[in-house]
Amino acid sequence: MTTTFPSYVISHYKLDFHRKIEQNMEVIAIQKSLLDGMKKELKALLELTENATRKYTPIFKEEKWLDNQEVCLMMNITKRTLQTYKDKGLLPYSKLNRKNYYKLSDVQALLKGKHSYNTNDNGFTDE
């Protein structure tokens, strides 16, 4: 559902926003050498960031990765069942920033039945 606002409300907020920007604008004069030094430091930081992420980009470009929700939807299982798969070592995963990711090929392999594993509706296993 999209909310639409009357034009007078929108124009009021636009004016208020521009006033706040104008109130906070300051002109600061610095030496050119200082500005050049800041630019050089920013470029070095950018290069460090690119170098740090470069070794991880091939991992994510080679294959599609799925998060918990996508795996649960794809496999039509609960989060508890997914946790059981992980605990039993049936579905490998990787953690990135406290979030689990799964290779699409691993999920498809589990779906194709390469692993015989049955769960009840409540997520418990029948072994």
From TrEMBL:
- Top-rank taxon of the source lineage equals Bacteria
Supply the Pfam families for this chain. HTH_17
Write down the InterPro entries for this protein, in alphabetical order.
DNA-bd_dom_put_sf (IPR009061), HTH_17 (IPR041657)
Domain (Helix-turn-helix) spans: 65-113
| Record protein name field | Helix-turn-helix domain-containing protein
The organism is: Chryseobacterium gambrini
